[in-house]
Each structure stands twice: as C-alpha cells, then as structure tokens.
Amino acid sequence: MVIVAACLALASVGCGEPTPEDRVADTMRRTEDIRGLSAIEPVPYRFLPGDEAFDGLIDDWLESDAAQETEADALVMQRLGLLPLGFDILEVLEWSTRSGVLGYYDPETKRMTIVSDPDDVGPGDLMVLAHEHAHALQDQHFGLDEPDEPLDDDQAAALDALVEGEATLVMAIWAMKRLGAMDVEELEASDIPTDVMPVDEVPDILYRLGEFPYVDGAAFVFDKWGDGDWSAIDALWADPPVSSEQILHPERYPDDVPDVVEMPDVAAALGPGWEVAAEMVMGEMQIGVLLADGEPWDCGCDVAFSFPELENARAAEGWGGDRLVHVTGPDDDWVVVWQTTWDRSRDAREFSAAAEAAFEDLPFSTVVIEGTDVTDGSLRHPVLVMITPDVATRVRTLAALAPAHR
Prior knowledge:
The chain is an alpha+beta fold. The chain has 15 helices and eight strands. A hairpin with a 5-residue loop joins strand 5 and strand 6.
C-alpha cells in the first residue's frame, strides 16, 4: 500500500501511470483515512458496464414481497394525490435504476459494484467507489443488516438518511482532497447518464424521496460532524435518528421523538370482506410534499435549489406523529384512514387548512377533522383525514370509527 501511494505521488518522475487497480487501492485507503475507520476484511469490488451491473438484481427485486409492498404504497400515494392515477411505480423504478444508478454496495454479498467500463476507470468512477466503500465500512463496523424490529416508513427514511448522508459527506471530502482541475474537466465531459426523466416530469414525491437521503441526510450528518468529529457520527449509529423530522431539523435530534399512533382495526370495524392493503407512517418529509401540492416557492433569488422549497410544506412542521391505513372491501370499495397528531394546536390548524387545500382537486370524497382521535384518545392535538371513493363510504366509515362525526 505504501509503495502504491508513493508511485501515485511520484508518477511524473519514473513510476509511470498508476493502473486502475492502483487507483482503486488508493481510493479505498484514502476513504478509510477520511472516515477514520479501517476495513476489517478486504472489500471485493467489480466494474461492470451498463445492464451487466444489474443482471438478476432487478428481476429478483421485482418478484419480491418488497416490490408488492411498493405497489401497495404507490396506490395509497395515488389516492392521496401524490402520484397520478394508474402510475406504474415498478416500471419507473426499474427504468430509473438502470439509467441513473452509478454503483451500489450489497450487504448480502459484501461486494461493491461500480457501473463503468473496467478498462476505463475515471475520476467519476473513483468518486462512486469512495461512496460505496464508505458503505462497506459502515457495514463492517456498525452493520447494515435488517434491524431486529421492523421500521415504519419514516423511521426507515431517517436511517437511510444517516447511511447515505455519511457516505455522501465522505465522498465529498475525498473529491475535495483528490480531484484536480483536469479531473473536474474529465467529469464534466464524462458519459453521465442523460436518459433519466427530466426533473419537471418526475412526480414531486419521487424526486423528494430520491434526494432526501443524500441531500438532507448529508446536511444532517454534516451538522453533527461539526469541525470533523467522526466520533459524533459513530455515536449516531448507537442511537440512530428515528424520523424525517429529526433529519430536517438536526437540533431536534435526539429528544424530539414522535408519538406512536396505534390505529384501531379499521377492516374489522367495516365488517366482513374488508382487509388491510397497506399501512404506513408518512412523517414530516412526505407530508410536506403533499401539502405543497406541486406549488413551488419563488424565493425571488438566483439560488438553484436541488428541490425547491415549497410554500405550504411549512405546514408540516410541528408534526407529532401519524399512521395511515388503507383498507379494501367488497365491490372494489376502499378507505384511507389517516390519523395525525401535532405538537401544538396551531400546528394542527395549519395542517388542516393546508390539507384541505391540497385535497380540493382529488376525484374522491375527503374530510379533514381537527380534534378527532380514533385511537385511544391520548393524542396531543389530533387531526383525522379520511379519503373514500364516495360520500356513502365516508359516512359509513365515520360512523364506525368516529360516531360523533357521523
């Protein structure tokens, strides 16, 4: 390793051009130096061009329970107005993975895959390698296995933000230390995928879900990292963030913990033939996109945001917890019951007003009821949201769950 580093430093005076293997070894070593963690075991890697990098991987996922859960969640998003009706989420995810993913680390095989020609390893490939090697270090030192207790959607988003945010920060530091002007020119001229969907055609929720772990996650990790205290990041792994709220507002970590919303058995309350199709926790990040309802915020400035701040998204602040249940019944009937709770009465009022505005153009029957709690009555400042295909189903569901609002 010392010889490799010396050759890299002295290539211009006799060691010659470093080989791709030399550059990979140097990138891994420097990534470990930046993060302050050494690989416990050697990390295998491979460079594969195009579709070869995803052979079998995507097909296996499309046949998995996770893909079915994704489809079920996407149907809920359509009924909330976050996705267009009939949106094929699996097709879009497959296409975006093949066209936009530049590398990945697999915790099962413990191997990194970089999507690139193995005979033409450039600075962009090494940047991706630094990011993925950071994941390998996370896995070896802290574990990237599935948690013992299943996470709800918002908890999973928060943990993903820690995982990707740290790797993004490590990659950024590596790039600042290692890339020169010629490397940047090569990056700008490289064949970065261009057949991804234009930003203005991506549903806001998918764009936000895609950028959140990298952009907001990196900002959260950077806040805790401060002046370079990696021990503070190590501590995050012992006590990970538990909500997108904590990621969006780092000062609220770790004390601002969301309320656990335990929903009643909605399917049983509606009678025979009803069953739960999906259940989720939306969290502040996704609620912000919902309340924004596609309306961008014009800051009146020249700053380019990766995702524009959205005016009504501010009404998602003060989130205290939520749980949404989507149930289906006879004759294609269905109901979305979404119980939320808020930190203050003002937060509940702001959410209620923004939600009613966001739902105005839905082709369904919707109701937003401030002060209603269909759980055990212990929520702080509850707001109940209900979406049904028609008024009759809404009235029947309200009578079963909240008789006072029949």
